[in-house]
Amino acid sequence: MPRNEILINILSIVCNVFEAHTVVLYLPDGQHGYGLSTFFSLGDDVNPIGSPLQIKSLSGIVLNKKEPLFINNMDKKGATPLGYYGTKEDGKIKAFMGTPLDNALGVICLDSKRTYSFSTKDLKILSQFGKMIASILTCISSADAEGKKNEYFLTLKLLHDLRKRQPKWDAFLNNLLEMTVAASTYSHAFLTVIDQRGTSFYVEGENKPILHKGDSKSIAFPIGSGLVGWVYKNQESIFIDENSQGQACSRLLGASAATKEFLSVICLPLVFQKKTRGVLVLANESPLKISEDLKDFLFMVSEYLTQFLENLFLKSKLVEARTALQKVTPAKNNATILINDN
Predict the structure, then answer these.
(1) How big is the chain by its Cα radius of gyration, in Å?
(2) Are 41 and 22 in contact (CB under 8 A)?
(3) Residue 46 in contact with residue 82, Cβ under 8 Å?
(4) How do residues 109-123 score in pLDDT, each as one tens digit?
(5) DSSP state, residue 272
(6) Is the pLDDT reported for residue 50 higher than 60?
(7) Residue 318 falls inside a structural domain
(8) For the chain, which terminus, N or C, has the lower number of CB atoms within 10 Å?
């Protein structure tokens, strides 16, 4: 059963147990706050799903103080708003009760149109419902994480066989980027590689266009440009996720090439022979959590991609060496070439 369906069923039970008018559940929204995750109501004036939790509302007070709260007579004018209704319904509510979920997972609140509807015993029972919801959310999260691990493993297995199925570089890279995006849930993935002189880099492949205008593959970006250029210079990975507040990025490739504004970015250097030869980039316009499992998966993808690039690099060096040798001594076409690119 989907998570949202489970939560709605629980809220409907809570509503029936307490003969409430509305029950709401706020959970983390992935953007450094809490949003209305789901609700069960006998009315139709509840705010839309996803509406942010109002800090100065009763729901916000329960969350911030991390303590249960119930009010049995809300007839007084100037009362603190509930935070999840439109202007009409808020004034009809006479009683309120709310409790925070364990581990700061959120808050569950309910109300009634009758005064003196709730008691301290009711508040304790609601707290038990809150603990049950927190436990269910934790179990669902653990199951999702385990399922994601299996997905990463299967994707890596497919990538291992991809080279045999797609021996041509362009087809191999396109498939690798699409498979990486599908497993990671990021919207954009692209690979940049350094030029032979080591003074600039260019986009070798992308699953979808990353620039607002122009063809990214036709542009040479100076080393050091944007976040990607920083990775080339420092040989270090970059991770920007939902916890990196205020780090929206539209300059992945430098100031002269504006990309979309990404709130989640991962840049991984592809290093061999002591140089960063490429950078694998994943980006998403909405904030996403970067788990340790996702990092491990992407590190393995980047290592596999590095091996492929290194093989291509050595083959190109071998071709260059043979061509040069043939120009000097055309008769010795079968000479053995030893390459040392230090």
Answers:
(1) 28
(2) yes
(3) no
(4) 999 999 888 999 999
(5) E
(6) yes
(7) yes
(8) C
What is the rounded CA–CA span in Å between residue 13 and residue 155?
40
Q: Cα separation of 113 and 107, whole Å?
A: 21
Looking at the fold, whether 319 and 183 belong to one and the same domain comes out as yes
Q: 34 with 25: CB under 8 angstroms?
A: no
Whether 266 and 170 map to the same domain: the answer is yes
Task: Give the Cα separation of 105 and 224 in Å (integer).
Answer: 41
Long-range contacts of 43-47 (CB under 8 A, 24+ apart): 43/89, 45/85, 45/86, 45/88, 45/89, 46/22, 46/84, 46/85, 46/89, 47/84, 47/85, 47/86
Range of the domain at 242: 166-328
Q: State how many domains the chain has.
A: 2
128 and 182 part of one domain: no
Tokens for 217? 């593959």
Q: Which residues contact 138 (CB under 8 A, 6 or more apart)?
A: 103, 105
Mean pLDDT of the chain: 84
- Write the pLDDT tens digit of every residue in 8-35: 999 999 999 999 999 999 999 876 689 9
Please enumerate in sequence order all residues whose Cβ is within 8 A of that of 25, keeping only pairs 6 or more positions apart, or say none: 7, 11, 36, 37, 38, 39, 106, 107, 108, 133
Number of helices (H), then strands (E), belonging to the chain: the values are: 7, 11
* Residue 340 clears pLDDT 50, i.e. is over it: no
- Encoded tokens for 14: 């809570």
Phi, psi of 116, rounded to the nearest 5 degrees: 55, 45
- pLDDT (tens digit per residue) in 145-185: 788 888 899 889 888 888 888 888 888 899 999 999 999 98
pTM > 0.85: yes or no: no
Contacts (Cβ under 8 Å, ≥6 apart) of 15: 21, 22, 23, 40, 41, 42, 110
Cα 205 to Cα 169, 196, 296, 316: the distances in Å are 10, 17, 22, 19
Q: Say if residue 43 is exposed, middle or buried (CB neighbours under 10 Å; 0-12, 13-18, 19+).
A: middle
Q: Which tokens hold the place of 153?
A: 């493993």
Domain boundary pick from 103, 123, 140: 140
271 domain-assigned: yes
